[in-house]
Write a structure and sequence with these properties.
Shape: flat
Distance between the termini: 75 Å
Organism: Pseudonocardia xishanensis
Keywords: Membrane, Transmembrane, Transmembrane helix
Strand content: under 5%
Protein name: DUF2637 domain-containing protein
Number of strands: 0
Radius of gyration: 26 Å
Length: 152
């Protein structure tokens, strides 16, 4: 590379050197600090073995595709596949969306303290609709929390 410019000189490449090869059988690098007391190292190793700590979960579209075309059954069509697809849409999809929203909202403190008042306001507004209020839990409204629960 020429000294006075950022562009590579003729015949030179801008590519970086390849990463050193990984040693076979080496454990993956832990996201947790390793300079801890022995009891904390055991907890760290136990947490590293949990799938949800180190792996990204499949997307909702992937789960529905697995229900429709996955190799979990020998049949490629019929009632079992339709039941799996219905389960994916009726049970898995709402729970995964709710779980993803909860995880997103709890990721930072600023989100938590913004989402809580918004969720309570939406819950209080939905509680005023006659039929919908049967599905709104009392803890999801402003009247369940101090100081409004002291006055109402």
């Amino acid at each position: 590379m020429s000294v006075d410019s950022q562009a590579p000189a003729a015949g030179e490449s801008r590519e970086l050197a390849p990463a050193p090869p990984k040693t076979p059988g080496a454990a993956p690098r832990s996201p947790w600090p390793t300079n801890r007391p022995p009891w904390r190292a055991r907890i760290t190793r136990a947490l590293d073995e949990l799938r949800f700590v180190n792996e990204q979960p499949p997307s909702l579209a992937d789960l529905i595709a697995i229900a429709r075309r996955g190799n979990w059954s020998n049949t490629t069509h019929g009632g079992l596949r339709n039941l799996a697809a219905a389960h994916a849409w009726i049970v898995q999809a709402p729970l995964l969306v709710l779980g993803s929203l909860l995880a997103w909202s709890a990721r930072t403190a600023g989100r938590v303290w913004t989402v809580i008042p918004v969720a309570l306001t939406v819950g209080s507004a939905l509680d005023l609709i006659p039929v919908v209020n049967m599905f709104v839990p009392t803890w999801a409204t402003w009247s369940a929390w101090p100081p409004l629960c002291w006055i109402l």
